[in-house]
Amino acid sequence: MIKILIIVMMLIGSNSSFADSDLFKDDFINNFQLLYGSTPKLTPSNIKQLSKNKLIGFDRFRYGQGVKQTWSEIRRNNKDAKIILYQGGPSINTKTDGHTEKYLNNVGRYKKSRGHSMGSVDDHPEWYLRWPLNVRAVFLYYPDQYILDFGNKDFQRYWLEATMTDVVKQKWVADGLMIDNCVVYHDNAWGKYVAKNIVNYKSGDEWNEAMNSFVNNLTQGLAENGQIVMANRGYSKLKKGGEAWEALDKLPSPPAVALDEGAFVVSWGRGDAAFLPEQHWLNQVELPEKINNSSVAYMAHIGSDIGEIGKDTTGSSFEFYDAFGFALGSYLLSKRADGPPTLFSFDYDKEKRGAMNRVSWFDVYETLDFGKATGRFYKVSEGKHHYYQRDFERGSVMVNPGNKVIRDIDIKAGYQERKMDATEPLSYIAKVNLKPQRAKFFQRVDLTAVK
Questions:
Q1: Which UniProt keywords apply (predicted)?
Q2: Among 293, 272, 283, which residue's Cα sits nearest to residue 184?
Q3: Is 373 contained in some domain?
């Protein structure tokens, strides 16, 4: 244990970059999936389906589920797939001291040290972030999870030693970890009741600087042990949030993947879906080209299931493939042309199944390929209104993030509309209307061959 602590102390002081722009092969759509929670059980069939993704996130208890060597089976199906295991970030769960290491999802040492060289978390009261009146801060909706001081170097060393012991040195070790709650500062409902009232950090800038230090130093430490990091950052929709993402990207050791699990359209709030306001949407679309050392991973999600008619926050109806197409089209506008590939995931049926609790795959992930982008996305004005478009070698994508219908858009000769539902055929059309929060996809065809 002393040897581990010495290594961790050396890593916190090191100054090397571990981001790898060649970690993922860049295809037209780069998929990832995070499967957390106890259902569904892994089987040889759904393991094969999961293996199609470039990046797959699990809880560590999934090791040995479905087949004896779960990670090896995924790599047999897809030798380039990266597997990451969930680990809570700067928090401690007060209810998991009795769990074995395989069933932990945080540092797991609230009052029980598990042989850690620095004792238990509760031996260090200075690590608890505080609200006024010296109240220990917790995450909103999670009263059993105390927030710990992510900017404290001693806590960072503690986190690394615990994670190396519980994950990296165990038989279930994978390619890396997804570190949750590495969130940038924000003052919405979560921030109002959590971040904004914390007395340890007086401003959003202080919070972001400390959190970026946490992610940077953990990435350094884990990379020395052959582990990649996905950091769950969030709030790329905010101007200040994007600036915090950019600041982390400029540090010596940004994570291999920076995740926002609230991209483009989300299931949070009233109804089955909330389509982001245009400026928030635009902030997300513009961000990946500003992040040069991490793959940006965008996850969109809705509450309704395939075949259901959902309601958004305004009460307007939408079909499943309306939301899916909007999310995928937005991703394709945002996708980097070079450098670390941008990743995409779409979760759904969250009202019945919960978040990240299903194995899913859409045929369009394999059949839709317009080739390389011919440039970045651009704004197209139609009278008083506008939409956004990006052109590729063999097609174009249009997205309307606004709240007005764009009518009678001329479609170039030689382009067919491609629907997201693979059962629908390509269709020729001269003009289209583009509804609010919708996307359209147009595939270039060989007119000579058609004639």
A1: Signal
A2: 283
A3: no
DSSP 102: G
Task: List 92's β-bridge partners, or say none.
Answer: 146
Q: What is the pLDDT along the chain (451 residues), one digit of tens a residue?
A: 444 444 444 445 444 444 555 799 999 999 999 999 888 899 999 999 999 999 999 999 999 998 999 999 999 999 999 999 999 999 999 999 999 999 999 999 999 999 999 999 999 999 999 988 999 998 877 889 999 999 999 999 999 999 999 999 999 999 999 999 999 987 766 555 566 688 899 888 999 999 999 999 999 999 999 999 999 999 999 999 999 999 999 999 999 999 999 999 999 989 999 999 999 999 999 999 999 999 999 999 999 999 999 999 999 999 999 999 999 999 999 999 999 999 999 999 877 777 788 898 999 999 999 999 999 999 999 888 999 999 999 999 999 999 999 999 999 889 999 998 766 667 778 899 999 999 999 999 865 444 4
Task: Find tokens 């959590």 and name the residue.
Answer: 194
**Integer Cα distance of 264 and 301 in angstroms:** 9
Residues 207 and 319 in one domain: yes
Tally of domains within the chain: 2
DSSP assignment string, 388-416: EEEEETTEEEEEE-SSS-EEEEE--TTEE
- Whole-number Å distance between alpha carbons of 106 and 93: 7
Distances, alpha carbon 88 to alpha carbons 177, 334, 355, in Å = 10, 28, 16
The answer, yes or no, to whether the previous bond of 40 is cis (omega within 30 of 0) is yes
Under DSSP, the state recorded for 273 is: B
- 309 in a structural domain: yes
Domain extent at residue 382: 378-450
Paired residues of 176 in beta bridges: 84, 228
Instruction: Mark which of 314, 337, 367 sits at the end of a domain.
Output: 367
DSSP string covering 36-88:
-SS-SPP-HHHHHHHTTSSEEEE-GGGTTSSSSSHHHHHHHH-TT-EEEEEE-
> Are 437 and 386 part of one and the same domain?
yes
**165 plus 304 within the same structural domain:** yes
E strand or H helix that includes residue 211: helix 204-223
Q: Report helix, strand or coil for 147.
A: strand
Whether residues 426 and 291 share a domain: the answer is no
Residues 288 and 386 in one domain: no
Q: Which of 335, 367, 399 is the last residue of a domain?
A: 367
Within-domain flag for 85: yes
